[in-house]
């Protein structure tokens, strides 16, 4: 017998957080169990790790928001703000902003990496840098592929699935819960901090948090999670395609470093352009909102 839609729509904030934890753990453990059954359980095998990544992404980030939205609303897609498709023009503007922001993100990452913890936290800093190096090594194995089919699978695994899942989870669910608790702006920053923390890549914590905050504000302004998913997808897609060309012998601009070092000026310029673009798109959504309500 199916549970009726919106059965727990009157749940309080603490109750929703508890339900989120329970559903999250259930699907995460289920995903891990499926991987253990169908894989060779070899953590040194890239294909096995990619399969684990796929199962974890679906189990941790896609299924919980869908199930919870079903339990918390009679209109699950509306609850997740998936019922409003962005216009082509808004989509193009978001893609352009994400492209323009690449040097700015690199510059922020560079500054983030220069931060040094106090002496009594030296052990923590060593752990953070080692974890970052291990993550970078695994990422390099993931993106170092040959052939169009492998590229397309990476786009699916690293661009589409995370963009869909993480935005459903962090913006569509966690931000929504915190908005019901306090206010939208506080919810945006809380979700952004959790979003950056859960990646366990602390040397990139600042740019990832700011990126998460931008995604949160974009959802607040546009009312469409699809537009946020597109922004997230664009960020990941550019990296996947860049590494594909890089590891296949093409001469390409070093996307990771542009905006730092000799191109520091470009990072500063990118910050200015990105901020200007965000302000303009905010005003465009405000104008649409006023026009819609006849103000």
Low-confidence stretches: none
- Gyration radius from CA atoms, angstroms: 20 Å
The protein's oligomeric status is single chain
The general outline is: globular
Q: What helical percentage do the residues reach?
A: over 70%
SSE class: mainly alpha
Number of domains: 2
How many helices? The count is 11
The biggest beta sheet is recorded as: none
Amount of beta strand: under 5%
**Helix-strand string:** HHHHHHHHHHH
Mean pLDDT: 90
Q: How far is the first residue's CA from the last residue's CA?
A: 47 Å
Describe the structure.
The chain is mainly alpha-helical. The chain has two domains: 1-78, no CATH class; 80-292, no CATH class. The protein has helices at residues 13-38, 46-72, 76-79, 88-100, 102-114, 122-143, 148-181, 184-197, 205-222, 225-247, 264-292. Helix 1 (13-38) runs antiparallel to helix 2 (46-72), helix 5 (102-114) crosses helix 11 (264-292) and helix 9 runs parallel beside helix 11. 31% of the residues are buried. The model has no long low-confidence stretch (mean pLDDT 90).
Key phrases:
295 residues; mainly alpha; 2 domains
In short:
The protein has 295 residues and is mostly helical. The protein has helices at 13-38, 46-72, 76-79, 88-100, 102-114, 122-143, 148-181, 184-197, 205-222, 225-247, 264-292. The longest helix is centred in the middle third of the chain and has 34 residues, at 148-181.
